[in-house]
Design goal:
This protein is mostly helical and 302 residues long. It folds into two domains: 3-106, Transferase(Phosphotransferase), domain 1; 123-301. It is 70% helix and 0% strand. The protein has 14 helices and no strands. The protein has helices at 3-6, 15-31, 41-50, 56-59, 65-74, 86-97, 109-118, 130-152, 158-179, 181-184, 189-220, 231-249, 254-270, 275-301. Helix 8 runs antiparallel to helix 14 (275-301) and helix 13 (254-270) packs antiparallel against helix 14. It starts with a helix and ends with a helix.
Length: 302
């Protein structure tokens, strides 16, 4: 069974699925074991859908490198990366037997990174969240841009003004969630529950971080004014953790988002007055890209 069959995408079943099945048989011939073997049928299906097979040479060191490359090309998760037909597979095997160069180029580091970024796991199961995520992207950008404008205007009581803006942001997000509740409530399956856990932890962590920073200031130097902008580099690190988890479980490009937030945390520490604008642009853009991807997945399922 191919990954598209394991994911229930029957519309994509075709010659590429047959090539995948041939690759699975070829893998077992080379190594003496199937490429995917779980403790039960469900776990095996999940392995077929989400996990790359182990390199044949690690199981059987006598497997020639070219044959391993041919086998693994048949077992690519993306049907577009497999041989287009069984004839193309047979042609490459004949080239190997004749001592000619096979058609597959060696996979370099850049190609491996690109594949890791393009890989997706459970994001299809969240495809109905596209519109909701785009609304959250807009609200996030507007809220932090407003904080930046308050900083530029040298608003008195920036701490309370910032708290009011963030409170309105959270109310707006709550309204969006309520308006789209049929798309996410109740959370269906592990991916949805995990995603909610990630972002609830981020929101709760943001509130606790602000409270802890204020209490530290109140105990250490209450005579001076508290600068709430010092929270932004810390919020960026918190967001990076969330995106790194999303990258491992949902969409590979979230790794890039997580790394961007780590870099941003350093940059914002150097230009603290610009941190609300930089943070709003970065977080809003990441949510917008996620929303566009989820909407595209929803259209593909229709």
């Amino acid at each position: 069974m191919s990954p598209e069959q394991a994911a229930g995408k029957q519309a994509q079943v075709g010659p590429a699925s047959d090539v995948f099945s041939l690759g699975a048989t070829f893998y077992e011939i080379l190594t003496g074991r199937p490429p995917f073997r779980g403790r039960n049928s469900l776990e095996t299906l999940l392995l077929v859908r989400d996990v790359d097979p182990e390199l044949p040479q690690r199981i059987n060191p006598q497997v020639p490198r070219e044959l391993a490359m041919i086998c693994l090309k048949c077992l690519e998760k993306d049907p577009q990366r497999r041989y287009p037909s069984a004839q193309a597979l047979a042609d490459d095997l004949m080239r190997y037997l004749n001592g000619d160069s096979i058609s597959i180029a060696s996979v370099g580091l850049f190609d491996r990174l690109t594949r890791e970024f393009e890989r997706s796991h459970h994001d299809v199961e969240l495809s109905t969240w596209g519109d909701m995520t785009l609304w959250v992207a807009g609200l996030t950008f507007v809220a932090h841009t407003t904080v930046f404008l308050l900083v530029c205007l040298k608003t008195s009581y920036l701490w309370s003004s910032m708290g009011l803006v963030r409170g309105l942001e959270f109310l707006g997000i709550a309204a969006v969630l309520w308006g789209h509740r049929r798309q996410w409530y109740p959370p269906r399956g592990m991916p949805a529950r995990q995603c909610w856990a990630i972002w609830f932890s981020y929101l709760a962590g943001s509130v606790v971080l602000a409270a802890a920073s204020w209490l530290h200031w109140w105990q250490a130097s209450p005579a001076s004014s508290f600068d709430p902008l010092v929270l932004y580099p810390q919020l960026a690190v918190l967001a990076s953790i969330g995106f790194f988890v999303l990258g491992s479980s949902y969409w590979g490009y979230c790794y890039v988002f997580g790394f961007a937030f780590l870099v941003l945390s350093v940059v914002m520490s150097l230009v603290l007055s610009w941190s609300p604008l930089l943070y709003g642009i970065c977080l809003g853009s990441c949510f917008a890209l996620l929303g566009r991807r989820l909407r595209g997945l929803a259209r593909n399922q229709d």
